[in-house]
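Input structure tokens:
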């Protein structure tokens, strides 16, 4: 099921239900893009028709951001659980290991995807990492050939959003994988080059606040959240 938040569709399911649906899509060979939806993206999409189309055209839109959960409560919707991009990737990898579905990591600085892959093998014994490739290969035909030779079922692309989703949409019909997820800085988190917020912040949905404390220059970006909630409150009264 999906719910619309300021014109953007968002899945209402929790991790378990989404994983079940995703692995059914693999069995049906139904190519699907997973995008993370947060207040900042929704506010940008209001001014950017191409971004709005990209987000709404995706097959699966996960509610990544506590603001989306609050918005759903304001409009008496059905989204009750946050589904973060990095946690979705981890759970997909865990399930892929159980079901022997190969994955591929594409993007990031040289060596980062390799280190992330080694960490995944440590976390999920038996996981099949069909291949890795950093984001510095300029020849797109080489990128596609390497992915297709590896024949993964799931492709994680780390380029930053919306660049990673645009790349997926431009190339996925020529690629072997069924499931595609843009994962931003998740390879860096796995590789240990970037630290994720402590678990207490994660559980409270306050990763944004932790990042703000670490990087005060993010303050202007975080102003999107109160503006977003005001917009949701206004639209829910109409």
């Amino acid at each position: 099921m999906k719910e619309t938040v300021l014109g953007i569709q968002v899945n209402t399911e929790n991790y378990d239900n989404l994983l079940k649906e995703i692995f059914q899509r693999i069995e049906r060979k139904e190519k699907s893009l997973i995008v993370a939806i947060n207040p900042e993206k929704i506010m940008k999409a209001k001014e950017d028709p191409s971004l709005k189309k990209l987000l709404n055209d995706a097959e699966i839109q996960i509610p990544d951001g506590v603001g989306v959960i609050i918005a759903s409560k304001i409009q008496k919707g059905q989204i009750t659980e946050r589904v973060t991009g990095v946690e979705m990737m981890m759970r997909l990898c865990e399930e892929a290991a159980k079901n022997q579905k190969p994955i591929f990591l594409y993007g990031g600085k040289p060596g980062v995807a390799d280190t992330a892959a080694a960490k995944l093998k440590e976390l999920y014994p038996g996981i099949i990492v069909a291949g890795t490739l950093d984001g510095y290969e300029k020849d797109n035909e080489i990128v596609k050939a390497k992915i297709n030779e590896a024949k993964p079922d799931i492709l994680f692309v780390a380029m930053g959003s919306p660049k990673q989703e645009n790349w997926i949409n431009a190339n996925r019909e020529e690629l072997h994988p069924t499931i595609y997820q843009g994962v931003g800085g998740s390879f860096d988190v796995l590789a240990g080059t970037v630290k994720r917020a402590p678990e207490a912040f994660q559980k409270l949905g306050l990763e944004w606040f932790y990042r703000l404390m670490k990087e005060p220059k993010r303050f202007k970006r975080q102003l999107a959240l109160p503006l977003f909630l005001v917009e949701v409150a206004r639209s829910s009264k109409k």
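The CA atoms of residues 45 and 52 lie 5 Å apart. The first helix runs from residue 15 to 28.
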